[in-house]
Amino acid sequence: MPAFLLHRLSLSDILILLQQKDIVIVLSITVTVFLILLILGIRKTHKLNEENQRLADLNPLDSTEDDSYKDFTEGHLYGND
């Protein structure tokens, strides 16, 4: 700020300028922190999606086990001796 403008500004005007500068600094820091958190969240989501896709490709539910119905009432608890 040029020196000739400083003579025209009162003390309250200078304090307002300092307060605005402080507010801008605080807001800049806050935006930076939330931007970092957003980037980390997007990165984590991407990694989880890749892991989900990898696990889906394994597909353990399509095994060759026989899932046909088996009669479980043939045991001794049901009186079919």
Give short descriptive properties of this protein.
2 helices
Give a structural overview.
The protein has about 80 residues and is mostly helical. It has a domain at about 25-55. The chain contains 2 helices and no strands. It has helices at about 5-10, 10-60. The longest helix has about 50 residues, at about 10-60. The protein is rod-shaped. The termini are far apart. The relative contact order is 0.05. The mean pLDDT is about 80.
Low-confidence sequence ranges: none
Which geometry do the CA atoms define?
Answer: rod-shaped
Strand tally, please? 0
**Can you give the mean pLDDT?**
79
- Gyration radius, in Å: 35 Å
Instruction: Determine the structural class based on helices, strands and strand pairing.
Output: mainly alpha
Q: What's the number of helices?
A: 2
The amount of beta strand, in percent, is under 5%
Please outline the major beta sheet: none
Helix content: 55-70%
Question: H/E order of the elements?
Answer: HH
Q: Say what oligomer this is.
A: single chain
Span of the ends, CA to CA: 103 Å
